[in-house]
Design a protein that fits this description.
This is Velvet domain-containing protein. By secondary structure, the chain is mainly beta. Helix content is 0%, strand content 54%. Strands 2, 4, 6, 10, 11 and 12 form a six-stranded mixed β-sheet that branches. Strands 1-3-8-7 form a four-stranded antiparallel β-sheet, with no helix packed on it.
């Protein structure tokens, strides 16, 4: 599995407002000339997937930075109050989509 760490993430947010700071991740990898991408999904505090509440661009392309790749989710919004976490899965597209790993944010309290 790839070494993936979350660089920035919010602890709290207002419903229907862009998350600030944006969720940003770094993947320590020797980037090959293939596409690397990440997908964000929302889960409630109990670990149940939540549909239709995470809005914005839920996919991000890896950008080469500091000996690896950075992924930024700059315009995500959570539209309903509650406690959630964001799970980001990272893939490469060398031969289909290969799952490289995942990172989970801390709980985000949305009011």
């Amino acid at each position: 599995m790839a070494n993936i760490q979350i660089l920035t993430q919010p602890a709290q947010a207002n419903a229907n407002r862009t998350l600030s700071p944006a969720i940003e991740l770094h993947q320590q990898v020797v980037a090959e000339p293939i596409l690397y991408f990440a997908h964000a999904a929302l889960f409630d505090a109990a670990g149940t997937a939540v549909s239709g509440v995470l809005q914005g661009d839920v996919s991000a392309t890896g950008t080469p930075t500091d000996g690896g790749l950075n992924y930024s989710f700059a315009n995500l919004k959570i539209t309903a109050p509650g406690k959630y976490y964001v799970l980001v899965n990272i893939f490469d597209q060398s031969n289909g989509a290969n799952h490289l790993g995942e990172a989970r944010s801390n709980l985000i309290t949305v009011v």
